[in-house]
Amino acid sequence: MATNAPLIMRIMALSINTAKRAGVIIRDVLKQGDLGIVDKGKNDPQTEADRSAQRCIIASLTKKFPSIKIIGEEGGSDLNVCDDWLVGEQDEAFLKQICPAAWQDAKPEDFVIWVDPLDGTAEYTQGYVEHVTVLIGIAIKNSAVGGIIHQPFYKQSSGELGRTIWGLKGLGTGGFTPVKPPAGEFIITTTRSHSNALHQKAVDVFNASKVLKVGGAGFKVLQLLEGKAHAYVFATPGCKKWDTCAPEAVLEANGGTLTNINGEHYEYHADVEHVNSRGVLASVGNNHKELVEKIPLEVRQAVGAM
Ligand SMILES: Nc1ncnc2c1ncn2[C@@H]1O[C@H](COP(=O)(O)O)[C@@H](O)[C@H]1OP(=O)(O)O
Ligand SMILES: [Mg+2]
Ligand SMILES: [Mg+2]
Ligand SMILES: [Mg+2]
What is the pTM of this model? Predict the structure, then answer.
């Protein structure tokens, strides 16, 4: 069964276990205490956990799927990793599911895998570890189709640390229970570390009943999926394709929508520009278009020109 399953199913099943292994690395680096922080730019830190988790993920996926294009946030990594970091086992429970017909015949050259080994690095270095996620996004022919969002520091009721959420368009989601956000309120989730005056203007026009400021694209989309917020607004460039590919796929597999602030989907082919230059707008209801129209034209024009 496992080796005969369609490629997308095998990639998803290996990515689930690889994201979990990366989560262990992220917890271990924090435990050991020396984060090895390097500044890549303004408000853009990288730690030993980002570097090591990326090596683990890319080495494992490359070994099993050598002809598939993989793009990771931390650039070209040394893939000569210890055996302990090489994940070869696929998640068997995931493989038992039926592959949606649309993806059954996808070939290696149709795929791009977008890897954010640690989303929410600023929050990781500041102790907001529950905002941290590992993101593995799977694009087929330009579109975000499948995604894994692993939360290394999520405390399960059993006491176990970490949980792994997946989504595949046409199949659905797993690893959590989707909840609808409360009716009669409008709660926005947004950045806590990359705001500016223009972005704030876009948030303000919604006149939200509550604005949650949290780190990471993965964590914000989880808040939408678990009914903590109605919309995710990020009206500034800065996040990249590896930040949105997995969250977009998981959210949309559950009926939500993730686009730029003009309501257009991003493209995820191998040659696309990495920056999401027109920000992010994500929602769970069926009023995405209305939300887009609320963002003032001057904000949309200014974000597009940044
Ligand atoms: N200006 C920026 N420079 C670099 N990364 C950014 C920037 N803005 C957002 N990001 C990435 O998008 C994620 C979501 O942004 P925010 O938390 O501000 O809403 C951040 O955790 C960060 O990912 P990462 O932590 O993987 O570098
Ligand atoms: Mg980063
Ligand atoms: Mg990120
Ligand atoms: Mg990252």
Answer: 0.98
